[in-house]
Design goal:
Largest interface: B-C, 51 and 67 residues
Shape of chain C: globular
Radius of gyration of chain C: 21 Å
CATH architecture of chain C: Alpha-Beta Complex
CATH class of one domain in chain B: Mainly Alpha
Distance between the termini of chain C: 15 Å
Shape of chain B: flat
Distance between the termini of chain B: 34 Å
Strand order of the largest sheet of chain C: 2-1-3-5-4-9-10-8-6-7
Strand order of the largest sheet of chain B: 2-3
Structural class of chain C: alpha/beta
Structural class of chain B: alpha+beta
Strand content of chain B: 5-15%
Largest sheet of chain B: 2 strands, antiparallel
Chains: A alpha+beta (477), B alpha+beta (95), C alpha/beta (477)
Number of domains of chain C: 1
Number of strands of chain C: 10
CATH architecture of one domain in chain B: Orthogonal Bundle
CATH superfamily of chain C: Amidase signature (AS) domain
Order of helices and strands of chain B: HHEHEE
Oligomer: heterotrimer
Number of helices of chain B: 3
Radius of gyration of chain B: 23 Å
Helix content of chain B: 25-40%
CATH topology of one domain in chain B: Histone, subunit A
Helix content of chain C: 25-40%
CATH class of chain C: Alpha Beta
Strand content of chain C: 5-15%
Largest sheet of chain C: 10 strands, mixed
Chain lengths: 477, 95, 477
């Protein structure tokens, strides 16, 4: 039986504000346990929360970037449950009046654009960390109270690959907004997945399984791939699915059922009386919207339009905010008519180097001024294009300036016609067959002869000039 | 409305309070009476009335994103019934 | 008169004119406590071996004058236990905002905390882990609650003045039972930061004093905007002493007909009517008003307050502070700690509140209660359009006997019938002594005003007080 896969993703994002959501403790990881805390985030009796202005702003920024509708009236609710990493035994979160709803993210998956709905983006606070020992658990509250955004997608994803693409696009945009480190390895971005299968012709959703404990985007994809197979097998065998939560075991490549808990949880949500209502009026939203940076999609379109890049190349450049910034800085040094020169260098040799080394463009540590100097050497024919690529490699490896590398390796091109004539004479003498071919009208022969001159000159001859000289020599004679 | 012992037991579990059988009995009876009294509210017509979850007409109370001085781990753990180095310690968590 | 028998304002005069020292006042208090405390038990933890500690400095506005603090207000380094086993020996690492304000004003904080009903759950101070407080006017009677210790201490001259907290009448009712002055400020007037929360949308800290002038001085000191409390209002605090000594000619007083019900004590009714006549003889004009939803106040309160309390008290679980039951697994530890650490009334309210918020009952109970709260508030708004204040009894009966209502929770709850609506509406109210029953038990007169109009309360209360002698009488101990 063929099944349709239905996936929804829940992302928890830590905001990179200076301080926590409800108190002034600085957020700083890698600290001594329980040293980045205060009576408020410890939930000591008598303490009260006050929400972080910067966190609210970041949240609105993010919601707008995903085209969400911002609720004019929003509030915090208490989500009540008992766990040792939750000092008040309730989490301050949002229930029925979340900050924003009904947004979307367009992804390009397998060549096609698809719109993935974003149900809601809401505000909440993080819990602490637990370390489990044999007969006890240790609690560190440093992370308690860090501001989180919960981003919930509609169940619009229909394959593990789409889920992966959704996460990369999501991260790309968040990076541009500069509101979070969004690093799954560091824990500033966490993702849970909900997956169900249904027969292709059925409209109702199947029974969903919640997946947790994925630590990377690839992990999310792998876990979903495994689940699709597991669930298809079960359904084929006629078994009924029960709603459950499963943990991804990356080491063994399987999902494992969590021992079933007591039924559905009753969180007893109610409006938090310690926090006021929030009114997010149009003016506030417009101000924040005006401050939104250019997002990847827009930037991609603009690169295509203004710099003549293909969609493919433009997409690669914008996939990293810093890369896009670096590229733009370089391109803008050139007048309109010459921009193409830099563009070609970026999408050609630079990108090649980056791919080889599995780095981003900006991580190559090539300074834009040095790159421009290198290109100038080529443009004024001081070195050949081929040589320039070698220089680039060395610039990245050694961090030495172009001029120094060219000098040390004696790479300056020979454009001096007298010197070149000498070499050309030698080549013409040694390659009578090619000379005759050329005279007979075969233009390829010219390329060959030029190649020979390049060889003899250890790559230093200016191939353009050589070509001209050989042509003149052979047509004149 | 009636509140039966089963419900009281379930709610006590939600509230993480262990009740002895006699306590459960007594509490169920008392809560039954109290809820009976509270039920007079159901006679009121509140259809069009907006709920008051905050009595004050204030909104948008926020604070600046500026760090303050944190507690030292010693101070944070001063009242802890059980600790292990700079950690609070709790008994084993059995799911 | 002994120093401990004087009012705060008299002592401040003496301190400033060097006729008394803070040490002298403390010694006087301790001498009194040694004499009567074993009978009254106004303080949570009193050991006859207790001696005054470090002498306070005669600084600032309050010149080192000591103040007694209720056991649910955080005082740095001093036991703050809400008179509960579950907070056994809790020493907060911070001061409540009101404590900081008092210290800044030069007050010294009396090291013994006033007894109270555990977590403020009660109207008689019979629910304290440390034992029952006795009414100084009749040791077999209750002092009222939950601030019974504060009221008894002021009445018996074991304190000069005190702070209490009021969620449903917990300052006013004990003040009326003990023949002293007690004020609940407008919700948001005084910071709740550091007040161990019972019901966050109802709680307020307020003064319990020997006369109205003391209450005016103390209210001013503790009031004001606190950026650590999102529910604190940013509004100037007037000098309430400016409201003293004013006449009350032409002030319009509303007498709510619903507060003179069949079940009320006939003596209380007579004393109150006499008091109203007194006000009229001073020039005030009274008429009957209606607060039609009065009968719903107690049920509404017991849903909202217990719901909020069930969430506020979830943090008492043996993890970070207080009592922890022996156990080898977490859930068992939670359940036993809370079973053994909380008293009966606390458990009853937590379970009732949890029920009101639980799935399936939220709409019928909690949400409905919030709606009726609106109706109750509207009742007061309507009256205050035409009247300067409302005058009523504080309690339907004088102090009842210890043990009389302890076995019947519902009967106990009904003793709050005249005070509860005030908290639901968020308005300020004061109770002042206005007479005695034949048995020698004090009767309190309650005055209510519209939000942030404490000035009206002080004006009327002071005029009444200065034209009567009730406040000068002291119990014979």
């Amino acid at each position: 039986m063929k099944y349709q896969t239905v996936i929804g993703l829940e992302v928890h994002l830590q905001l990179s504000t200076k301080t926590k959501a409800f108190c002034g403790c600085a957020i700083d990881f890698g600290k001594t346990p329980n040293s980045g805390v205060c009576p408020v985030c410890l939930g000591f009796p008598g303490t009260l929360p006050v929400y972080n202005k910067a966190a609210l702003k970041s949240a609105i920024k993010l919601a707008l970037a995903f085209s969400c509708q911002i609720q004019e009236h929003t509030k915090f609710d208490r989500k009540n449950y008992f766990y040792p990493d939750l000092p008040k035994n309730y989490q301050i979160s949002q229930f029925d009046l979340p900050l924003s709803r009904n947004g979307y993210l367009d992804i390009i998956s397998e060549g096609k654009t698809k719109r993935i709905g974003i149900t809601r983006v809401h505000l909440e606070e993080d819990a602490g960390k637990l370390i489990h020992e044999t007969n006890s658990s240790l609690v560190d509250f440093n992370r308690t109270g860090v501001p989180l955004l919960e981003i919930v997608s509609e169940p619009d994803l229909n394959s593990p690959q789409e889920a992966f693409d959704y996460l990369t696009s999501l991260k790309n945009i968040i990076e541009y907004l500069d509101v979070s480190d969004c690093d799954m390895e560091k824990g500033s971005l966490r993702c849970d997945a909900n997956i169900s299968l249904r027969p292709e012709d059925v409209k109702e959703l199947g029974v969903k399984t919640e997946l947790k404990n994925m630590n990377s985007f690839k992990g999310v994809k792998d876990a979903l791939v495994f689940e699709v197979d597991r669930q298809a097998e079960l359904l084929d065998a006629g078994q009924t699915m029960n709603q459950e939560t499963r943990l991804w075991d990356a080491e063994n490549g399987v999902t494992v059922s969590m021992r079933s808990k007591e039924g559905a949880k009753d969180y007893r949500y109610f409006p938090d009386p310690d926090l006021t209502l929030f009114v997010i009026d149009q003016a506030m939203v417009s101000n924040i919207k005006a401050e939104l940076p250019e997002l990847p999609q827009e930037k991609m379109q603009r690169f295509m339009r203004d710099y003549g890049l293909s969609e493919y190349d433009a997409k690669i450049l914008v996939s990293s905010k810093k890369d896009a910034q670096f590229a733009e800085d370089c391109i803008q040094q050139y007048p309109e008519k010459d921009k193409k020169i830099m563009v070609n260098w970026l999408i050609g040799p630079l990108l090649s180097e980056a791919n080889c080394r599995k780095l981003n463009l900006h991580e190559l540590n090539v300074h834009k001024d040095e790159l421009i100097r290198l290109i100038a050497f080529v443009e004024n024919q001081s070195i050949s294009h081929l040589s320039a690529k070698l220089v680039l490699t060395q610039m990245i490896d050694s961090q030495k300036p172009a001029a120094l590398i060219i000098k040390e390796n004696n790479m300056l091109q020979i454009s001096d016609t007298y010197a070149l004539e000498q070499i050309i004479s030698g080549v013409i003498q040694e390659n009578e067959k090619s000379v005759s071919s050329f005279k007979a009208g075969k233009t390829n022969a010219l390329m060959f002869l030029v190649g020979q001159v390049m060889k003899k000159s250890a790559g230093k001859a200016n191939p353009k000039v050589v070509g001209e000289l050989i042509k003149r020599r052979l047509t004149d004679a | 409305m009636a509140i039966d012992k089963e419900t009281v037991e379930y709610v006590a579990h939600l509230a993480r309070i262990e009740l002895k059988p006699e306590e459960l009995d007594k509490l169920s009876r008392q809560l039954h009476d109290i809820l009976g009294f509270i039920d007079k509210l159901s006679a009121l017509d509140v259809g069009q009335v907006k709920p008051t979850s905050h009595i004050l007409p204030i909104s948008n109370v926020l604070r600046e994103d500026k760090p303050h001085i944190c507690l030292t781990p010693d101070k944070a753990l001063e009242n802890a019934p059980s600790k292990n180095g700079n950690f609070f310690s709790v008994p084993k968590i059995i799911e | 008169m002994e120093l401990n028998q004087l009012t705060a304002h008299d002592l401040l005069d003496k301190l400033k004119s060097n006729q008394a020292t803070p040490e002298g006042i403390l010694d006087s208090l301790y001498a009194r406590i040694q004499k009567v405390e074993l009978k009254v038990k106004a303080y949570a933890r009193f050991n006859p071996a207790d001696k005054p500690g470090v002498s306070p400095r005669a600084d600032g506005l309050l010149s080192g004058l000591p103040i007694t603090i209720k056991d649910n207000i955080c005082t740095e380094g001093l036991n703050t236990e809400c008179c509960s086993k579950i907070l056994n020996n809790f020493r907060p690492p911070y001061d409540a905002t009101v404590i900081s304000k008092l210290k800044t004003a030069g007050s010294s904080i009396f090291p013994l905390k006033a007894n109270m009903d555990e977590f403020a759950f009660g109207s008689s101070t019979e629910n304290s882990y440390f034992g029952t407080t006795h009414n100084p006017w009749n040791l077999e009677s209750v002092p009222g609650g939950s601030s019974g210790g504060s009221a008894a201490a002021v009445a018996s001259d074991e304190a000069i003045w005190a702070l209490g907290s009021d969620t449903g009448g917990s300052i006013r009712q004990p003040a009326s039972f003990c023949g002293v002055v007690g004020l609940k400020p407008t919700y948001g007037r005084v910071s709740r930061f550091g007040l161990i929360a019972f019901a966050s949308s109802l709680d307020q800290i307020g003064p319990i004093t020997k006369d109205v002038e003391d209450a005016a001085i103390l209210t001013r000191i503790i009031s004001g905007y606190d950026p650590n409390d999102s529910t604190s209002v940013n509004q100037d605090v007037p000098d309430y002493t400016n409201s003293l000594g004013k006449d009350i000619k032409g002030l319009k007083i509303g007498i709510p007909k619903e507060y003179f019900i069949a079940g009320m004590d006939t003596q209380v009714k007579a004393v109150i009517e006499e008091a109203v006549n007194k006000l009229k003889s001073l020039g005030a004009v009274s008429s009957q008003v209606t607060l039609p939803h009065t009968q719903y106040a107690v049920p509404v309160y017991y849903i909202i307050a217990t719901a909020e309390a069930s969430s506020n008290l979830a943090r008492f679980d043996g993890v970070q502070y207080g009592y922890r039951a022996k156990s080898n697994n977490l859930i068992d530890m939670y359940k036993k700690t809370r079973a053994q650490g909380f008293g009966e009334e606390a458990k009853r309210r937590i379970i009732l509140g949890t029920f009101a918020l639980s799935h399936g009952y939220y709409d019928a109970y909690y949400l409905r209660a919030l709606k009726v709260r609106t109706l109750i508030k509207n009742d007061f708004d309507a009256v205050f359009k035409d009247f300067d204040c409302i005058v009523a009894p504080t309690s339907p009966t004088p102090a009842f006997k210890i043990g009389e209502r302890a076995a019947d929770p519902l009967k106990m709850y009904l003793s709050d019938i005249y005070t509860i609506s005030v908290n639901l509406a968020g308005i300020p109210a004061i109770s002042i002594p206005c007479g005695f029953t034949k048995e020698g038990l004090p009767v309190g007169l309650q005055i209510m005003a519209k939000p942030f109009n404490e000035e009206m309360l002080f004006r009327l209360a002071h005029a009444f007080e200065q034209n009567t002698e009730w406040h000068k009488l002291k119990p014979r101990l």
